[in-house]
Please model this.
Amino acid sequence: MTILVTGAAGFIGYHVCRALAARGDDVLGIDDLNPYYDPKLKRDRLADLGDAIRFAECDFADETALAAAVADAEVDRVIHLGAQAGVRYSLQNPRAYVRANLAGHLNLLEFARERAVRHLVYASSSSVYGGNTKLPFRVEDRVDHPVSLYAATKKADELMSETYSHLFRIPQTGLRFFTVYGPWGRPDMALWLFTSAILEDRPIAVFNHGKMQRDFTYIDDIVAGVIAALDHPPMDDGSPKAGGSVSPHALYNIGNNRPEELGKLIDLIEAACGKPALRDFQPMQPGDVPATYADISAIAEDLGYAPTTPIEVGVPKFVDWYRAYKGV
Model:
């Protein structure tokens, strides 16, 4: 049987596909290779995967295209990582989020219903916690006040999934990712932006005057959590799951359980690059939040999730990869 992975050419999708293939799973990856950031990076990820997976270029927000891409595959499990990402971009192009994150998520739910898949694991986001000030963020916390459209679409995805698990008993697990970083990462994320700017002697924008904390989570830890979730679908036994559902639908935070100051991240990048940053302190950006911090007790108890990579280890690994990839 086949595992369908959406967003297979994306940062997390690439790493998940590689890990699944390495353990012998049959993987069908789909991705539309859209130009939100340079598609060359996405094609380079696919080239690195080579023949380890089957790949079909497909926009899963187009139900006809999705049906054609998976027509000949006997899919029994789905890892739905594809989405329109980015908090700030959602202020510029909101319709892209409605199409990919709402219509696209619905298409995957319908696919799961029609094919009677054994488990649908999907990407949510720490952004759903919005302006919550109580730290750490717990999956039981109310998440009714998003501060960006991106966050609102991810919360809507969780609600749609809850409905489908209730009506059609589809086992689902939603994962609220916390600031994922590492080799092959996204060029719109802070670690890439800061590294490229420092190496090119350009100033870096430090928002909220540096008074920011993030629960930075290394990609290998994220992949371990995704696969652990995939291998343990929630039971349809009427018992409350993480997140509160009594349907076969669980919600987990997947983070490092260790918020770090933005200034410390920059210090580590400077050390790895061997040169100082030109810090341009700026006010908070619309849609952003000052701190994120994942309570991972639920996923640790249920799935044995235990992140192992602090930023002191992960940041130099990213910088080494970046310099090799860019030849600088």
Notes: The chain has one domain: 2-326. The mean pLDDT is 96. DSSP finds ten helices and 13 strands in the chain.
